[in-house]
Amino acid sequence: MEFVNEMRLRFKALAENEAFARLAISGFLLPLDPTLEALADVKTAVSEAVTNAVVHAYPEAPGEIDMRAGYAADGTIEIDVIDRGRGIEDVEKARQPFFTTADGDERSGMGFTVMESFMDRVSVRSAPGKGTAVRLYKRIAPRDEAVPRRA
Amino acid sequence: MESLDREVEDSMLFYEKRANGLAVRLTGELDHSAARDLGSRLDALIDETGAKRLMMDLSGVDFMDSSGIGLVIGRYKRLKRRGGGVTLTGTNARVDRIFDMAGVYQLVDRGERRRG
Question: Does B97 touch chain A (CB under 8 A)?
């Protein structure tokens, strides 16, 4: 995909950076003039992806999370949330609703389900011991396109 | 919630002990970071008041991800053991959508919603 705008961020895998990641992606997407609904969809999906990395990637000490985003002229956005943590043994299993390995932490296991529901497409690449990359896709229609036009 | 017995400033959580249980109003962004803290604070309040029913008003929540599911279900399990439960009010369509994905409304009671 050819991007007309791109950004990269690196932050520590800490719970307090979940809000930062949501704020950062919102700010980056503002030139697309998204509806509040579309922006909330993206914020929710980013929050889930970053939370997964915060909770699961680095059991010993918090490492880093990279967030990269770009959008094309037609408003298609692509967001990567990448960690270099312990990785996921079985990605298919991890994507199932209610699957969680964080039993003591009240995690619902619904993170990927929520991402899939609010985005057009979600792809996950992971290698045990090397890390996980989640890619989120969505086409954001500008606000004036989101309302039905008169014939 | 007009007549608060106690109100915690600088906090996401306002609460009031009522005859039929513990009423709480959550405000702000309900993510994993907030839920960790809220879960233990709600549990402490439930234990302190001996409430069997928790009425959670989410009308002041501006953002919620799946962490909200864990927060509600965690409290539901705790109160269920005492023969009580949870009632959710003030949810918007987006919050309902997330709770519906996890079947939360099969376990907890749904009160009044909000628009938008």
Answer: yes
